[in-house]
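Annotators were shown the component list below and the corresponding predicted structure, then asked to write short factual statements about the assembly.
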Amino acid sequence: MLKETQKEETKVVEKKEIKAIEAIDDEMLLACAHCGLCLPSCPTYRELSMEMDSPRGRIYIMRALVDGRLPVDEKFAEHIYRCLVCRACETACPSGIHYSRLIEEAREVFEKNFKRPLSQRILQNFVFKRLFPNQKLLGFTFWMIWLYQRLGIRWLARNLGIMRLMGRMGEAEKILPNIPSPLLKYSLKKVIPPEGERKHRLGFFPGCMMIHIFPSVNLATARVLAENGCEVITPQKQQCCGALHTLSGIKEPALRLARQNIDIFEKIDVEAIIVNCAGCGAALREYSHLLADDPDYAEKAENFSRRVKDISEFLAEIEVKPPQGEIVHRVTYDDPCHLLHGQKVKEQPRMLLQSIPGLELVELKQADRCCGSAGVYNVLQPEMSMRLLEDKMKNIAETNAEIVVTGNPGCLIQIGLGVKQHNLNMRVMHTVELLDLSYRSRDATS
Ligand code: SF4
Ligand code: SF4
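Structure shown to annotators:
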């Protein structure tokens, strides 16, 4: 996207003219001690060795913008958008800098002040304001994608080189795996009763990408929860979490989606809101920050975010039924950034995997490093994304694992792509799928 913007004439915006400059948290910028402890953890700094592509460098850039020493232009955007928002720098930072908020705020200022080319504005408008806030339209789009993949149109489009002419859409098409039948998503019932006595009543947030690309993960999640005495309620009218919007600096639709989700979950009385998508989970936990200045929603958002739990985190907290079916496989686990750095969930998925009889868990070298997926980063910044995926795949190959496990749809897609590109004989699965398999293979043998 940015390459195209570079063709446009630079528009320098003076500080006094910059819209929404107050969106950037000045105090947070000042809290940075410039110690540089975050630098080794930053993937773009490791790859490019450039200060401006490090967390500290980007904080300098934001500071310069706030002080009126820098215009809102392509140079600013180049460094701000090259960040993956992987949040590894937050884990490393001793000053508690909430870096993802800063980068989202900087992007918001960019989007409000910079006039992108018409084609990009149309695409942005469609994706953020029409497609993702409309679950019916999103569902219809996935029906179209499914038909495109099944009817041989993809084969034709690729062989005729049409996708190469489609820019970002072509990039997205290359990355997208084969999607399963769109009918599968209807197998997830609105209310799933517990097996035996009810111990917990939970809300489930199934996430747009999980619904349409990995519906089997949602079904596995519901089954595992039911197995552990949980009644699972999936409100039908819930919306996209808004993560892609905030990551892209498009805040208004994200606020609307957040309010809708809060209202929907307020209507059901549940002790926790379970998520199996790390990106959605991190975004839902941020509702309390996103709506902190909204007098009607601040308290409700606080109450909502407090109840959000990743499936592995919730299962580790309750007295989980020991899985009994054997899974005799060598397995490795890759931490999704938004689970590890965004939600500080590290040991729980490993613990659950280790509880499965027969499963051998081998630790993955640099499991805490981003695989390059990062929302739509692999579509917008394919070159950097593929460099990071290469590093990840080298480490994955070294484990000789038969199954790679992770906890986020973006990572499932990205690592799945890497496995295909490297022709590795490995499956890529979600933690909860293995747990479900173990419970069900016990049932099959008992
Ligand atoms: S570790 Fe934190 S305080 Fe130190 S330079 Fe990085 S962001 Fe700033
Ligand atoms: S969020 Fe990730 S890519 Fe961005 S500055 Fe921090 S460590 Fe680097």
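Statements collected:
1. The mean pLDDT is 92.
2. The radius of gyration is 22 Å.
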